[in-house]
Amino acid sequence: MKRAQPLMALAIAIGLCACGQQEPPDAAAAAPAQAPAPAPRGVDAVDDARLVAAASEPESWLTYGGGYAEQRYSTLDAIHTGNVAQLGLAFSYDTNTTRGLEATPLVIGGVIYTTGSWSIVYAVDAKTGKEIWRYDPKVPPETGPKACCDVVNRGVAAYQGKIFVGTLDGRLVALDAKTGIPLWEKVTVDQTRPYTITMAPRVVEGKVIIGNGGAELGVRGYVSAYDAASGELVWRFYTVPGDPKQPQENPALEKALPTWTGDTWYEIGGGGTVWDAVAFDPELDLLYVGTGNGSPWARKIRSPGGGDNLYLSSILALRPDTGELVWHYQTTPADNWDYTAVQHIILADLTIDGQPRKVLMQAPKNGFFYVLDRATGELLSAKNYVEITWATHVDMKTGRPVETKIANYDDATQVIKPSPLGGHNWQPMSFNPQLGLVYIPANDIAWAFGLEKKFVYRPGGWNNGNDPTTGDAIPRKDVSGRLIAWDPVKQEARWQLPYPQPWNGGTLATAGGLVFQGSAHGTFAAIDAASGKVLWETPTGTGVIAAPSTYELDGEQYVAVMAGWGGAFGLVGGDASQAANEGAGGNKNSGRLLVYKLGGSAQIPALEKLSREVSAIAGELDPAHVKAGNFAYHRWCAFCHGVGAQSGGVLPDLRTSQLFFSDALGPIVMEGQLLSKGMPKLSQWMTQQELDDIRVYITAKRNELAAQQAAPPTRASAGGN
Ligand code: CA
Question: Would you list the domain boundaries of the chain?
């Protein structure tokens, strides 16, 4: 993909409880009759009624998106614009992980349930940060290379005494919420294919909803429902057709089949994975999921005779009882750019043209903000929320985007916005119904798309049909991010907060007039929801990509967030990811749960600095080998170790790696000696000549770094901006 160079390239019940305060027995006896504080209700008492009414229980955070509408809005207002400056760390909890953290913590009955890298689940006391239990599903490390975008996990679901987690290797596990002991476990995927699970499950009417990812490597997407009590599969909906020579699983797929041509897609999988968004409207009895990009990305390879390729890059409304498709809206027909529509889906009631409408809102990767009627799937409006160059607009008559000339890269490499990282990715947006604003963690990144002309399917490897060696380097000025306060009725930004790097954290909106968001450069901030002014900001020591949640315990409001740089951009992002790491203090990556409250005075434990000091390696380097190594590096290594051989601090920076420049390199790369750490064995694809060339290329990049370090610092080399 991108190659070298400077950059990357790439309750309404307001916390009624004054009653939360414990009083001494004699005082209580003397006081007039006052109801005792109700014990916080735990996971045992999480049922359908409580999940439907999650918004009226702001002291808890019951589901991934803060309720079935996924608004991520809390009516708690004890922390507000007037006092947020007094916010401080209540406690931190070390996950003992060094990879990306993407989970939103659930908080139920005084316990925080969250996840970390490698699908590990943590139960932590919500007042003290003391660990109650920890469950490690022991994901085999060789699963790591199946994950396009780091070994991340976005969190758990809670229901009737159980905590549910999807593991990277495709299992769905039900844990006893009190002990963390597994009660049942189901393998939800064909583990011989490169499926992974990173999403948080959701429980809807007694069924656990779970999808999976893997479309970069090549899989057929689907979403499944498992019985929460027994773990039995209730239904499965495939999002793309199966074997074109066979009858399809259901009428919706029979309808989809003619929108595909050729049969390459079937061998590779077709894609359309359901790897993140799920929302539910109990009144309409509709379950909403988003589907991902095509496998491969390039439509010329995937469906050479054209076609929209249903149901890629679509929003699907399904019956939660049966998985039957009720309606669909395809955001990106004939996807060609990894423009998934799995991004966070928010349900809300808006007044549009004087009419109250039950809407669904999504800002998928393709850069358009969509407002749909969620009963029918009717497109109400669509407008680009970031700069886009692949389409001019969405035609309101057809509901289809109108592509520009450069959108097609069949014949020539094209620099296109948004990038495959999306105008918006999985980082959840939030909605403040009082202000009528959606807070979108947006990315502004350009990308050079080029067709892989001699495409060969490599089972188990990346199969996106894009040439890693085409395209010019993307200048740093074309790699940034911002927080957008979006008015979904007017379809325009109310305010915007720019960030030096993309890939900032998900958002939380509160009735205190605040938006909480972490940043790529290692801070956590409270922002005035109406104006976009930063009211409070604190260093976190590592980039924050996850979304916060909030809860109330014993009369105090807390805000919790997972801090741990990584995910797709954290790994691949090259110099922008490195600049984020340096902005965060240049520390070794270290994952933590951070919990804040007014007057909190705890400190984040001291973090170890990452050293990038190197010396040059003497000797002439053959430019032909440097060039060949650049090619091979960006085909095999850059997705994890960073474009331009620049690491953002999550995985080793090869320029500074002692192991890389030792005799251990061959055994590690070709024989899989570090498989236990997730480093794949590459001999099935990579040749010894390629490895030799990569060594030359990395030596050249190391020598460049050494020369920079020897030169006096300049503004230009300081990173960030
Ligand atoms: Ca993708």
Answer: 623-710
For the chain, the straight-line distance linking the first and the last C-alpha, in angstroms and rounded, comes to 25
Neighbours of 74 (CB within 10 A): 29
Question: Is 338 in the active site?
Answer: yes
Q: Which residue has the higher pLDDT, 650 or 13?
A: 650
Confidence (pLDDT) at 715: 53
Bridge-based pairing state of the strands 270-271 and 294-295: antiparallel
Can you tell me the mean pLDDT for 54-67?
97
Distance of CA 271 from the midpoint of ligand 1 (Å): 9
Residue 23 has what pLDDT? 34
Q: How far, in Å, from the CA of 281 to the mean position of ligand 1? A: 27
Q: Helix or strand or coil: residue 425? A: coil
- Position 35 confidence tier, pLDDT thresholds 50, 70, 90: low
Query: How far, in Å, CA of 518 to CA of 526, rounded?
Result: 9
Q: Which CATH number fits domain 623-710: 2.60.40.740, 1.10.760.10, 1.10.260.40, 3.60.60.10?
A: 1.10.760.10
Reported pTM: 0.93
Q: Which of 281, 335, 338, 693 is catalytic?
A: 338
Write the pLDDT tens digit of every residue in 511-561: 999 999 999 999 999 999 999 999 999 999 999 999 999 999 999 999 999
The two three-digit tokens of residue 431, written as one number: 């909605």
Question: What distance in angstroms lies between residue 590's CA and the mean position of ligand 1's atoms?
Answer: 26
Q: Distance, CA 609 to ligand 1 centroid (Å)?
A: 33
Task: Give, as residue ranges, everything with CB less than 5 Å from ion ligand 1.
Answer: 293, 338
Alpha-helix residue ranges (DSSP H) falling in 476-622: 567-572, 574-583
Distance 632 CA to ligand 1 centre (A): 22
Grade residue 714 by pLDDT with cuts at 50, 70 and 90: low
